[in-house]
Predict the 3D structure of the following.
Amino acid sequence: MRSLAQAMELKGDWTPSDERLLGDDQSVLLMAFAYLVSLSVVKAAAGGSTKLAGTVKTISSVNNVIMCLYSLYSFVGISLILAANWIDDGFPVWKAVCDTEHSMSRGLDFWMYHFYISKFWEWIDTWVMIIKGKGVWPPENSQFFLHVFHHCVTASVLGYVPWKQELPMAYLGPLTNSFVHIPMYGYYCITEHWQGARMYGVFITPSQIVQFLIVMVGLIPSTLNPEGCGATKRSVVWWWFAYSVWLALFTMMFLKKKAARATALSKAN
């Protein structure tokens, strides 16, 4: 009799991972470089013009809806398979983050691969900001640097490593990221048309910070014993670097916004 996880797994004629689109290390590095090049190309093409403001707003709104729905789809799909695996394995705790067989990732190949590919689609976020005249490229401040850094490395961190199963708990990245992106892209879409909704943006950054902390705690066993947990040392180092930078910059951004909000309120009173 098939397990619950096997019953839920989406079957398909999948080619070996290295033979799929963008399925090797070199492709990931080239795409990161291509992203940075694309920013200069888009900025040069935009030329500081605001002629396309209305069109860009429409494109941005549609993209935000697409990403909000896609994030919901990914979160539900990944959650169901993870729940099935966890049930099949008897609700393990340690094995969920330290397991040479990567049992929690059974049946996730389809989900991890398209989540990886979706990270390149997210480049649209930066392109839209550039066309709107934002000082994203080159980054004018730490917030814009965070944006560029995040989109430059997120495919390798949240897409490639989980898909290649280089960490036993790598599924935590796509799981938490897809969850946070549901309200985040919904917020972006709403604020395109209603500025009053920006007051709710105060909840977005803390949720992202919590996301990082969850993943970093889950990464500890693989850090202490990479081989015993079925982790590659390069992925452990790469994840600590990326998540530490994200945590520091997101925390800095949150504190700055909190201070600015407090100053604005004091002036209003």
User: Anything to note?
Assistant: The radius of gyration is 20 Å. The longest helix spans residues 53-88. Confidence is low (pLDDT under 50) at residues 4-8.
